[in-house]
Amino acid sequence: MNMTSTIQLRDGHADNRPGVHRLSDEPNHSDIHHSSHLSMEQRAVLDEKIDTACSRIAPLWPLKHFVAVNPFFGLSDKSFQDSSDTLARILGHGIYMSRDYYREQLANGRISQHDLGAAIERCGSQLSVEEVEQTLAKPAPRAKMGMAPMSRILERVEGGLWSSFVTERISLHCAAYFDLGQAMIAMPWRDQSLYAAWRKAASVDMGPAMMGIGDFRRDVARTPEDPREAIAWAIEELAIPEEAVERYLHASLLSIGGWAAYTRYLRWQAELNGKGDDAIVDLLAIRVVWDILLYQEKYSSALAAEWRDMLEASMRPPSAKRRAAAEIDRIMLNAMEIGFQSEVIAAIGNGMRGKIGESTITRPAVQAAFCIDVRSEVFRRSLETVSPGIQTLGFAGFFGIFIEYLPLGSSQGRSHVPVLFNPANRICERIKADDDTNQRVVDKRRQSLALSKMWKGFKYSASSAFSFVEAIGLIYAPKLLGDSFGWSRPVPNPVTQGLDRNSIQRLTPSIEPLTTAHSCDKHDGSGIPESDWLDHAERILRAMSLTDNFARLVMLTGHGSSTVNNPHATALDCGACAGQTGEASARVVTAILNQPQVRQGLRERGIDIPQDTWFIAGLHDTTTDAVTLFDTDEVPGTLHAELSQLQQWLEQAGELTRMQRATIMGLAAQDDHSIRDNIYRRASDWSQVRPEWALANNGAFIAAPRERTRGSNLEGRAFLHDYDWQQDEGFKILELILTAPMVVANWINMQYYGSVVDNDTFGSGNKVLHNIVGGAIGVLEGNGGDLRVGLPMQSLHDGKHWVHEPLRLSAFVEAPETAIDDILDRHDTVRQLVENKWLHLFHIGVDGKISRRLGKTNWDPVR
Amino acid sequence: MQSWVNTATIILAMTTPLYLLVTGLIPTAWANARPRLMASLNMGAAWLALLSAILVAGLYSYDGSLSWSLYSLQLPADLGNFSISTYINTVTVIMLLLVSFVGVIVSRYSRNYLDGETRQGQFHKWLSLTLAAILTLIISGNLLMFALAWIATSLFLHQLLMFYRERPAAVLAAHKKFVASRIGDACLLGSVFLINSALGTLQFDAMFQSMSGFQGELPLSLHWAAILIVTAAALKSAQFPFHGWLIQVMEAPTPVSALLHAGIVNAGAFLVIRMSPVVSYSEFALGLLAVVGLITLALASLVMLTQTSVKVSLAWSTTAQMGFMLLEAGLGLYSLAMLHLVAHSLYKAHAFLASGSVVEGFRAPTLDLHSEPAPAWRKSAAFAIAILMTLAMGKLFGIHVAEQPALLAAGAIVAVAMTQLMLQALSLQSSARFLSRALVINLIVCGAYFTLHHGFELALVGSVMPVPNGAGKFDYFMVALIITVFIALLLVQQALKSGRSTLRDALYIHLYNGFYIDVFITRVLQRVWPTPATERNSYGAQL
User: Fold this and answer.
1) Model ipTM value
2) Which of A318, A563, A596, B122 is least surrounded by Cβ atoms within 10 Å, i.e. has the fewest?
């Protein structure tokens, strides 16, 4: 076995027949596989490298429930800088913004001289401010090629469109294999592995032959049947030096990064359920087999030389010049972060904590809990402005209840919990009516859905599509008009499809098990057992630090968006609810908390909720900033006055929030009414590519009592989690906050970061070119190419400027340092995030003093 | 009184393209500096064009054609008489309404959709010009004016297709389209001059008059003209094997695809209908058109079934639908072709503009469907019901197959489609209530089809030159072939869905790859007209 550390290439003079050129010292037995060449140990070493390379890829959730993912998730065991260097040697560029961008920030004052100085110090650099400025003024070193696949090398040698061709071939195969239902006729080999299916398909596919690789189909037949063996074979044939193997595999996956991310998602989901999924290894095998077959078929000494040069170049450590350039990048990023951090620190200092005494002494008019999402910050501030007597809280938008939700009549549930977890309870939707009525509505809905399925079949079948057009096509004239003016929806709303208005208004999640009368066998074991209600209630209230001084109305508000014709619609919904809205979770939790026996039990456990307190669920529409309240019919009559007061406040707060959002939406000059109209129009405009700015410009995470920040304007840039460490026995809740909500905030933050610094690799490009693939898997940009990950440009950039500032998350936690250190000690993944500089961790003292964590027990006072 | 109305109709028709033309003449730099204003101007002009079209539709008397020349120029070397003139009949009115309506929708859509693009102003400029060119094409009363508008449409559209000229794939697709279009242009110009040499006129009305009541053998030059016309139509409508460009133009913003698929690609059928006074007398040209259309629709509709991305699937669907439309034209069923043109435009414009909604279909509640296949007797019953329903409807609308055997093919196609609908229903639920609802839907669809067919038949009398009566052997052969193809499509789709065999698997791969024709064309084109394989574009260039 010649996995030697030097790159040995044979010129291939001896044998010029196509298809038999090998890079190794082995004799030419192209039709025999040499699996036996690898000893058990070598095999194990390679397997580990394969698995490491696969784990470097971050998962991509499909569009039907898109959630934010840290694209550098698989690199967090390395430092931020090392990861940037690693990616630079694969992609050709690191993960910092361009010098142009930083120059602009310096010029417009966003980066002050002071912040620059502080950043130099923080980075431990010896440079002076002037030196940094001077270097910044010069152009950055040119981007390198990185570790390119064979197709790219071939393109350099003989021209042509090989890169896009190979990407297209692999992408088409994946799309057909994973298709969720776009095609009427599915690929035949979906019952086999992705790799086995590829071998079958490629042995029929005449595409490569049409492109000039005549023997491709024959070549495929002699590739190893086992994907890992195929990878070993390719590595051997391509003479990848041992120390380059892992990087080569990582690079190969990144060259088809979108589908790699999707297969990584499949593995993620399988692992959550204690299973495994090897589609990502299959994909890797397909990619490297393409490399080797392309090499053999198109062999020339020039190609071999280019390939060898590329391998050598990509393994060289960064030159002094590049290291110096990286230092500048690092300083500039830190300088921007320092500027932002001082704003947040000032905001925390301006808060009301300790200034107006203990605000908890008087009973609040209303308590309103929102998701930690940065969009809630704006709304909470507005609500507090409208009514100073209101107390608002921040908590993960699934409100701590782990449910899978089955819409009325559906036979399949959807997870409504953060993607790090599995749902524990299955909740079915029903309408507030007797069983017979439910049964009737369910039957009607199923029938109506079946009819629309039949219609779809009629519309798209080969033999009927033509008659469909002639008989029905003219109907699209009024439909075009209606959709154009926002009077109608391009397609029925999936939440309410097949239901009449009356039933829609009576929809509700059922915490009790559903009778079999209106359910199918999949509904068995639905609901939450009554015996668990009390435990859930106690756990949730304690996690929210909401254990005394209850208001008469306590509102739990989930959030969701309202847009039409938007492939990435679910990206605007609640990430903590796995890309669904927070409605179901909020309604389930409030339903439990309103049960008399739960109240009784809580009292026994030391949480005394007054008799006159009522929990009510709401949904914050982040597109329009309207809040809908649910189950108002169940609110006791004695609270009706409070209820209508709350509704009025919510309306006013919505108005105020829209006014604040107007500037960033380019509506600043308009009056209240036109702002409202404009924003509502966006929600039903099928041509709208910027319905809302979602979590753009997020940058901070604050886990502290609201009094710390109340009264300060955090400009919708902070995730706010309420946390009172004095009430947290054994710091159990702190542990939860640092390992779940803070990690989720980091994921969102890094998704935005990656999408801005390298939209080609970690973003999804231009929305006006998006082409949905696989029904609901993801988007292609334009005709084809790789599946795209991350966020579209329109979610980040307004056409003139970046709306999102790419900064790493600054997390502020009010808890003793030792408690934080202790938790980081026990959770490697979180410790890595902090110590490898994927986020900044700050501590807020009881006295309001703030310090930044440099290392264990090493906290640097900032203020 | 009557002449006053006619004058108004003519003036209004001739002004429809003008508003958009004026908008399109705004300099690029000015337009790019004021994207919102440019979008509003574009939309305003499109509304004015639609308003004019509606007024034309209201004033036009629907009996006979109107024509009028504004300016006329005798070309040297006996090339004929170029004139800026208009020719209005029912076809003109329908097309004006259709294109100006789609123009409004697309312009309106682009306003927000392209918001933030640095070259949005330019986009609206080229969109206005493209719309103006199509509207000019529609109102043209002179063959040469028609041909020039035809060429202009394609050149302006080229600018829209190249909107992201930094994207190699966009350039490649635009090159493909460019080559196909120029061949088409040459064919059209050739036919125009042949017609002039044979009939001594370039005016549509004169051509119509001189050919009406034509008897005997068509002169060779007109035969050739007819062949060139159907070739130009096939190229314009992305017929096999020149369909590759249409599949690939997803590299332009969605509204461009919508406009292209709804307002431009169907110009092939419009051309044939406009030229019916010549084409109708050339059995060979019509036969050629029918065969090309039939091959295209059969292949493309099967390829469509396998496609995994929404826009590519829609593009294959358009190719198939254009094939069907040209097949109808080739069979002399001009009114059906016209109905198809209009209905498909509206449907496809919507399908593209709403293509971002696909995901929502997958967020709807999941159904547990009974999976056992319907018994054979039910399938046969579905087939019998479909045939009976079609026959009854045909009888009700007084269709006589004997006079025009092509109608037999049309009827069979409807019967196959109805069968498909019923089979679809049978595969989903078996309850009597569900099936009876499906049956009612079937009845409505069937009724709508025959009503519209009848309506368009009436509307187009006098606006097209019908194919002379008396069916030849070829007609019967075609009818038999078409019926066979449609039944085969039904069966192949069923077989592809359920069966598993080496043959079926191989067929799937060939279909999925669109029979590789485009890979091959890309390779050849890349050799003669290379696309710069640029690095992936930077962010700044995108927005």
Assistant:
1) 0.94
2) A596
If 0-12 CB within 10 Å is exposed, 13-18 middle and 19+ buried, where does residue B12 land? buried
pTM beyond 0.90, yes or no = yes
Q: Does A771 contact B312 at a Cβ distance shorter than 8 Å?
A: yes
CA–CA dist B440, B418 (Å, integer) = 12
With an 8 Å Cβ cutoff, are B446 and A471 in contact?
yes
| Per-residue confidence band for B372, with pLDDT thresholds at 50, 70 and 90 | low
Q: Is residue B369 scored above 80 in pLDDT? A: no
Contacts of A567 in chain B (CB under 8 A): 356, 358-359
The pair of structure tokens assigned to B261 is 């698929």
Taking the C-alpha atoms of residue B349 and residue B347, their distance in angstroms, rounded to an integer, is: 6
Binary contact (B362, A570; C-beta < 8 A): no
Task: Give A7→chain B minimum CA distance, Å.
Answer: 28
Answer yes or no: is pLDDT of B541 > 50.
Answer: no
Tokens of B422: 């019923």
Non-local CB neighbours of A382 within 8 Å, separated by 6+ positions: A652, A653, A654, A656, A657, A660
Check if A799 contacts B (Cβ < 8 Å): yes
Exposure string for A799-838, b = 16+ CB within 10 A, e = fewer: beebbbbbbbbbbbbbbebebbbebbeeeeebbbbbbbbb
A784: contact with B, CB 8 A cutoff: yes
Are residues B97 and B53 in contact, defined by beta-carbon separation less than 8 angstroms? yes
Calculate the CA dihedral of residues B342, B344, B350, B355 and round it to 10 degrees: -160
Q: Is B92 helix (H, G, I), strand (E, B) or coil?
A: helix
Give residue-wise pLDDT tens across range A584-600. Answer: 999 999 999 999 999 99
Q: Which residue in chain A is spatially nearest to B301 when comparing CA positions?
A: A462
A402 and chain B in contact, CB less than 8 A: no
The two tokens of residue A270 are 């399988």
Q: What does the mean pLDDT of chain B come to?
A: 89
- Taking only the tens place, the pLDDT of each residue in B17-55 is 999 999 999 999 999 999 999 999 999 999 999 999 999
Q: B508 and A467 in contact by Cβ < 8 A?
A: no
pLDDT the model gives residue A610: 95
Q: Write down the H helix ranges in B331-403.
A: 334-353, 358-361, 376-396
* Token output for B40: 């509003």
Pairing state of beta strands A553-560 and A614-621? parallel
Of A284, A93, A66, residue with least CA distance to A759 = A93
Distances (CA, A) of B42 to A153, A486, B185, B253: 46, 20, 28, 17
**Chain A residue numbers touching B431 (CB-CB < 8 A):** 447
Among the partner residues A189, A410, A765, nearest to B366 by beta-carbon distance: A410
Confidence of residue B66 (pLDDT cuts 50, 70, 90): confident
User: What residues in A contact B342, CB-CB < 8 Å?
Assistant: 473-474
Looking at residue B428, its pLDDT comes to: 82
Q: What string of DSSP letters covers A638-694?
A: GGHHHHHHHHHHHHHHHHHHHHHHHHHTT-TTS-HHHHHHHHHHHHT-TT-S-S--T
Please state whether B216 falls in left (phi above 0), alpha (psi between -120 and 50) or beta.
Answer: left
B402-434 pLDDT, tens digit each: 677 788 888 899 999 999 998 888 888 778 888
B400 interface with A at CB cutoff 8 Å: no
pLDDT confidence of residue A17: 35
Alpha-carbon gap, residue B324 to A171, rounded angstroms: 31
In the structure encoding, which two tokens stand for residue A410, read together?
């559906």
Whether the Cβ atoms of residue A811 and residue A840 lie closer than 8 Å to each other: yes
